[in-house]
Amino acid sequence: MEASLDQLARRLEEVVGELRGVPVDVARLEDGEQVRQEITRLAATSRELRAMQPLGSPEQGREEQRSRRQVLDALTRGMRMRTVVHASVLDDERKLARLRELHAAGDLHRVVDEPIQQLLVFDREAAFVRITPVLRSPGALLIRQQSLISVLIDLFEQTWDRAREVTEPTARLSPREREVLALIAEGRSNAAVARALSISEAAVGKHVAGVFAKLDLPSGDDVNRRVLAVLAYQRGAAR
């Protein structure tokens, strides 16, 4: 994962280097209302939307209802939508209910635990990136430079591929269980985990059993269950 992101960062540096001295099609929109108008205009004609939302929608009341209606109308027109959201959305019942409704309607959602930047990419024609990565900050960059849009699409697709389905249950592990599972994911044996955490091997065994139970893994070969637990950890289904 780190290698792929490093490659992406290097590619972005290459693109920026290639654009030095060349006019770049990037506009700075300082006003939040102007950003909303541009997004509404593009949403009316675009065929595909890729989106990343760090903390879910900040909208409330009528504004939220209007946004929801716009999304459903766009889906009815045939727009394809995929949205990556931060896992904190799952802790807000109202936001989670809205997310699941839109997911069922066709705005497919996936969830990640690591921090993400707000991003909207319409088709392969235009992208919006928040000027300041702070919730509800007003401005955005409107990017139409194709080379930059390609890098942003690569970022989205890599994030989408490692994200988990929004309908997938997430097991809530204790802090110690997460520590144990993280070390198991590094390929360590129970004995090695015990040494790393300065606890007994018997205690590690109890924590591992707790992880298996919370992930509802089928009884059987412990080696296979360890593999399944690690896979759940890597895709974020255990946290």
Share of residues in helices: 40-55%
Oligomer state equals single chain
Residues in β-strands, percent = 15-25%
Order of helices and strands: HEHEHEHEEEEHEHHHH
Topology:
Blueprint: H1 2-18, E1 26-29, H2 32-45, E2 48-53, H3 61-77, E3 80-86, H4 93-105, E4 107-112, E5 119-122, E6 126-130, E7 140-143, H5 146-162, E8 164-165, H6 175-185, H7 190-197, H8 201-214, H9 222-234
Parallel strand pairs: 2-3, 3-4
Antiparallel strand pairs: 1-7, 2-5, 4-8, 5-6, 6-7
Helix pairs in contact: 1-5, 6-7, 6-8, 6-9, 7-8
How would you describe this structure to a colleague?
There is one protein chain. The chain has 239 residues and is of the alpha+beta class. Helices cover 52% and strands 16% of the residues. It contains nine helices and eight strands. The protein has helices spanning 2-18, 32-45, 61-77, 93-105, 146-162, 175-185, 190-197, 201-214, 222-234; strands at residues 26-29, 48-53, 80-86, 107-112, 119-122, 126-130, 140-143, 164-165. An eight-stranded mixed beta sheet has the order 1-7-6-5-2-3-4-8, sandwiched between helices. α1 (2-18) runs antiparallel to α5 (146-162), α6 packs across α8 and α6 (175-185) packs across α9. The model has no long low-confidence stretch (mean pLDDT 81).
